[in-house]
């Protein structure tokens, strides 16, 4: 999920004179500089000689090591690929390295011969001076511009901001003028969504308990929820938080657009609050979810009768659990999505219970039929 190099705007405090920078930011800069100075993995003791904050004699070795671990983890979250080198036994050792090829982005230029290629014979130098040049053909530049525009259409604030930043930085080296590389506009996005996603992502990564306010679409009630966040899912163009709801003692899918006022447990920030269930696989879970199963509402068991008139109907029936007389049962949390799905079978799938689902399916079928009659 995470790219080794992240293009982000330069924080304002990195342009400050060193005397005015926050202590943490200065430590980060010193740590990155020390790691880039060494091509081979180095130990914490070596780092302590080159990063002033880690050699403070007023603090014990354990306290300085904890400070380093926090800095290392936070830099990794920002996209700085600090690696812990494995020892002979396959376990992470106390040696660390920051490879320049993973940290620096290559130079970008238009391709003089119309081909996309690197220039491996470029004279090598220390650090960024030894980077290759990545040459883009005109059609590749057009593809990048179209990709940025597609991100804008997704209407997701955080991704749009990343795309806009990447396009601005690429524009220093290549021209997108003839490729309609429009600036990604953020005015139509909800900035709160990006803030909520960032906070939830922090809780997921750290495995910390999260508390937030959630408005349920079924009851239209705003209530506080405390959860153990398992992961974030992007399904059918919508972000969901998969989490264990402490009050309900059950796994729930929370739509991120209905979440507000997120608070991540700050106690013992370096220690997880919970463990994921044994064998839990977020990707497998996401691939197995259907639109009608997503949500935090009460689950309803729906009985559906399928007529094996087509392969499509047979495949749809397999998604439910067996019942009597060619019927299947489904666990439904979003009735409107389930009813629309049933209607796609053209009468080969008919709900039998409960009455609320039967009524909704009948009403939607009549409404759809009326629209087709008007069109004809």
Supply database-style keywords.
376 residues; four-stranded antiparallel β-sheet; 15 strands; disordered N terminus; alpha+beta; extended; Arc Repressor Mutant, subunit A
Residue stretches low in confidence (pLDDT < 50, at least 5 long) are: 1-20, 120-124, 181-189
Strand order of the largest sheet: 10-9-8-7-11
Q: Give the CA-based shape.
A: extended
What is the H/E order? HEHHEEHEEEHHHEEEEEHEHEEHEH
Strand content: 15-25%
Structural class: alpha+beta
Between the first and last Cα atoms, what is the distance in angstroms? 48 Å
What would you say this structure looks like, in words?
With 376 residues, the protein is α+β, with helices and mostly antiparallel strands. The chain has 4 domains: 12-103, Arc Repressor Mutant, subunit A, CATH 1.10.10; 128-179, no CATH class; 191-290; 300-375, no CATH class. 35% of the residues lie in helices and 22% in strands. It has 11 helices and 15 strands. The protein has helices at 23-36, 44-50, 61-77, 100-103, 138-153, 157-170, 191-206, 282-288, 311-317, 335-343, 355-375, and strands at residues 42-43, 83-86, 92-97, 107-110, 117-118, 133-136, 210-216, 221-235, 238-245, 250-255, 259-264, 300-306, 321-322, 327-332, 349-353. The strands form 4 sheets. A 5-stranded antiparallel beta sheet has the order 10-9-8-7-11, covered by helices on one side. Strands 13-14-12-15 form a 4-stranded antiparallel beta sheet. Strand 9 (238-245) and strand 10 (250-255) form a beta hairpin. Helix 5 runs antiparallel to helix 6 (157-170) and helix 10 crosses helix 11 (355-375). The model is unreliable at 1-20, 120-124 and 181-189 (pLDDT under 50).
């Amino acid at each position: 999920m995470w790219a080794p190099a992240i293009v982000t705007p330069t924080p304002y405090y990195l342009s400050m004179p060193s005397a005015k920078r926050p202590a943490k930011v200065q430590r980060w800069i010193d740590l990155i500089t020390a790691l880039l100075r060494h091509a081979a993995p180095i130990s914490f003791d070596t780092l302590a000689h080159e990063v002033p904050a880690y050699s403070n004699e007023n603090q014990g070795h354990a306290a300085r090591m904890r400070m380093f671990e926090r800095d290392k983890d936070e830099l990794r979250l920002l996209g700085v690929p600090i690696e812990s080198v494995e020892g002979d036994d396959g376990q992470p050792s106390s040696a660390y390295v920051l490879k320049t090829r993973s940290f620096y982005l290559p130079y970008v230029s238009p391709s003089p011969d119309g081909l996309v290629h690197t220039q491996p014979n470029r004279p090598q130098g220390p650090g960024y001076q030894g980077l290759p040049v990545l040459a883009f053909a005109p059609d590749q530049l057009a593809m990048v511009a179209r990709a940025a525009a597609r991100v804008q259409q997704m209407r997701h604030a955080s991704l749009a901001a990343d795309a806009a930043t990447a396009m601005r930085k690429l524009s220093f080296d290549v021209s997108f003028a003839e490729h309609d590389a429009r600036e990604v506009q953020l005015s139509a996005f909800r900035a709160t969504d990006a803030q909520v996603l960032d906070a939830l992502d922090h809780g997921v990564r750290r495995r910390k308990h999260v508390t937030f306010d959630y408005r349920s679409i079924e009851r239209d009630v705003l209530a506080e929820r405390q959860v153990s966040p398992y992961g974030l899912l992007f399904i059918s163009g919508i972000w969901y938080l998969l989490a264990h709801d402490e009050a309900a003692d059950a796994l729930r899918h929370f739509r991120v657009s209905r979440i507000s006022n997120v608070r991540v447990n700050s106690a013992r920030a370096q220690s997880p609050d919970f463990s994921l269930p044994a064998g839990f696989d977020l990707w497998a879970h996401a691939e197995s979810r259907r639109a009608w199963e997503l949500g935090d509402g009460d689950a309803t068991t729906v009985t559906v009768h399928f007529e094996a008139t087509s392969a499509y109907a047979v495949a749809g029936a397999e998604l439910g659990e067996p019942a009597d007389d060619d019927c299947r049962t489904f666990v439904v949390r979003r009735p409107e999505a389930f009813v629309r799905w049933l209607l796609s079978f053209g009468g080969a799938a008919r709900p039998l219970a409960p009455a609320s689902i039967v009524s909704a399916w009948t009403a939607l079928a009549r409404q759809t039929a009326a629209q087709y009659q008007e069109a004809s």
